[in-house]
Amino acid sequence: MNRNNIENIIRNSLAEDIGNGDITTHAIVPDNLAGIGEFIVKHDGIIAGLDIIEILLGIVDSELAIEKKIYDGEKVNTGYIIAIVKGKISSMLTAERTALNFLQRMSGIATMTNSYIEKIKHTKAKILDTRKTVPGLRELDKLAVKIGGGTNHRIGLYDMFLIKDNHIAASGSVTKAIDLCKRFQKENKSNFKIEVETENIEQVKEALTCRVDFIMLDNFNLKEMEKAVELIFGKCLIEASGGIDLNTIKEIAETGVDFISVGALTHSVKALDISLEIRS
Known about the structure:
By secondary structure, the protein is α/β, with parallel strands linked by helices. The protein folds into two domains: 3-113 and 270-279, Alpha-Beta Complex (Aldehyde Oxidoreductase, domain 3), CATH 3.90.1170; 118-267, Aldolase class I (TIM Barrel, Alpha-Beta Barrel), CATH 3.20.20. It is built from eleven helices and twelve strands. Helix 3 (50-60) runs antiparallel to helix 4 and helix 4 crosses helix 5. The radius of gyration is 23 Å and the shape is elongated. The two termini are 34 Å apart. The mean pLDDT is 97.
């Protein structure tokens, strides 16, 4: 976690919500009124984002004190108090919505990630995230996946080669696309991993002759995937991708793939229901 990046995300989010000031709180709540706030979970799940909330509260009011009752990554049941905040009620109210937005979304991602992991824990496969994140929140979305037990794939376009169908179409073939990436490596003295997306067995065979680090099996049915795994086995790592959900992931993992990428972890997440109850 890059502290500077996280602080920038938090400050931008607070500025979006607070603007020139929390006029309702300023009108109603005395500035010197102190109290206690309890973050309460309203649904079973995995908690993620408490460390982020601690930073956020400190930015809003350095005198707010948070007592975390659990650590990020722990399972909780409905009704559990995960953290207690003490200090000015006005500061808590101003921070409330932004804090809950982070906490609910991150906990939802961690909870969903864990649900997928539970389905395949009897296999060697690992759950990968994707770049299908909220713009500006990728670092937090991917942190939540990691807290939930998943594995982060590439962070952006800059940290590994991922040759997709449109790259193949632009270059003319799988082989040409891979050769161009290897030429880039040589010319720029870089050593990025190379992954290629394949849509059929013929492309898998072509990619194998080019010696890449990962082969992605995109939208393969189970029979095709089993055949591809048999062809690839031991030659490079294998990722399964494409519309995978909780109903299909078990069978896919059992084919012997190394990784399964699930875009839904971050693009279709349901926020975990958490509230902040304040009392003076």
